[in-house]
Amino acid sequence: MKTLGIHHISAIVGHPQVTIDFYATVLGLRLVKQTVNFDDPSTYHLYFGNQEGEPGTIITFFPWPGARQGKIGDGQVGVTSYVIPKGSKKFWKKRLASFDIKVEETNRFGEDYLQFNDSQGLQLELVERADGKKNTWEFAGVSSDAAIQGFAGAILFSSHPFSTGELLHTGMGLQKIGEDADYTRYRSEGSIGNVIDVKKIPMGRGRSGAGTVHHLAFRAKDDHDQLQWKEHIEHLGYVVTPVKDRNYFHAVYFRERGGLLFEIATDPPGFTQDEDIEALGKALKLPPQYEERREQIESILLPIEVKDHIN
């Protein structure tokens, strides 16, 4: 079996408005869905992506104001990688500098990266590639010629790097395409969210909290494909959860041997099932089980807005 690559990445942060300001106003991503944490409806679950909110472009956040700061380490996505169009690196260097964001230029497997932290400590990077389609969303001074297209991939920090790599390769169908002193690189057949680098030397256990990734989701074509994945992963000796209905996709979860929480999520039904594409992210959408509590939930949630500039 072969996954096409990353479906979404979910992280823990603090204040929701700070998160929106960074990912929408600084990075120019589209807020494609504002809903609530299905397990804790007193807090938001925010989704950002490309114009259509397609798999491979979606980063999601669980914002808990006042949450303790986490520690990035083994058992987590260490760095979330975004792909930008060829020729746009100069634009992004200038833009990030205009927001006083410190950027480090690095090279890995012959590719040049711009690495930086978001406003709450998550480690991000941008890399130019020809892969993936153009993102037509334009916002806050980011044109479609420079807009983030979606995920380039991720760097995984694992307490057992060999086991994590074996799962990616023999269990999930990614091809091993490179190795250096620090990382092993794997690639899926998808056009986006398709490159995973595994850090070869453990760096110490991470601690969940604000500024850390909660889980990494891989793509399943549909419900039938997902059930095949569930059986396949269980056959490999992992404990997989029952299917969870997340409204915009269906999900199963398992903890791999290096400590990372992996999810397998279906591409459909997508984010337009309860909003037209033009209206994505503009209104609070609640799962059916919480709709009768809307007034109470709205009274608890902090007010948020998407701004085209930061004062």
TrEMBL record:
A Pfam family of this chain: Glyoxalase
Molecular function GO labels: dioxygenase activity
Record Gene3D superfamilies: 2,3-Dihydroxybiphenyl 1,2-Dioxygenase, domain 1 (3.10.180.10)
Record-linked InterPro entries: Extradiol_RC_dioxygenase, Glyas_Bleomycin-R_OHBP_Dase, Glyas_Fos-R_dOase_dom, VOC_core
Transmembrane portions of the chain: none
Alphabetic keyword roster: Dioxygenase, Oxidoreductase
Sequence ranges assigned to domain VOC in this UniProt record: 5-129, 150-267
PANTHER family: RING-CLEAVING DIOXYGENASE MHQE-RELATED
Full protein name: Ring-cleaving dioxygenase
Organism: Bacillus coahuilensis p1.1.43
